[in-house]
Write a structure and sequence with these properties.
alpha/beta, Rossmann fold, eight-stranded mixed β-sheet, globular
Length: 257
Amino acid sequence: MPFAEVNGIRYHYKVSGQGDPVLLITGLEGAIDFWDDTTEMLKDRFTVIAVDNRGAGLTEYEGDFTLGDMAEDAAALIEYLDIGPVHVLGWSMGSHIAMMFAANHPELTRTLTVVSSYKRRPSRSAYILNIIADEYRKGTISEETAGAVINTMVRTEGFFRHMEESGRPIKTADIGEKGSMLQQMKAVNRFDFGDLARRIDVPVLSVHGLEDIMTPPHFGDELADEIEGCQRLRVPGEGHILRPKTYIPRFIEFISS
């Protein structure tokens, strides 16, 4: 398990495959293993770098942080590995980290892909996630309960129906240490979008599931409208978490063109 001492933290990352480099940045409480299926689809043609953001996985840090800090962590890693410029793919919270990476470090960025993203934070989703994060920190709800609530936000009705009919158990989201989710939510809540989208000067692909209830599709369209020349992929039947097979082929086409 490689770590890099960068930007004042001990940053956990994983490198797989060979070819043009692709940086994967995940969302709230996501860790490197979130990208396992995606990495399998990419590693035969690309060098895939996945990271644990502050507040998730094995990355070691101290104190509170911002999304900007996490973007600078990723940039410092790419410089540490001497592997840039990279194609950046960010999901959910990770898409905003990826946007800041691209806007602040165009010399390190070849393309940007934002998945389940937004220009304006969805208030309904923030409402329940802030409650879940705080109650989990206080110990009034279990990790399993917190994960189950998050599952209802990121998965589709079709997913739950399939699991119910097949009799398969549903794995709850791994929330990690108490307090870390709340730290990440505070970073999301403090995020000021400003003119970020207009400062991005690389090719951009916006991906969104049409059954996303955490960040409904019009939030993604509102963001894409702000980015000049932004390409769009809207995927029927997918929610906030999209199955890699539904969009990674288009992503490969986008970064290979």
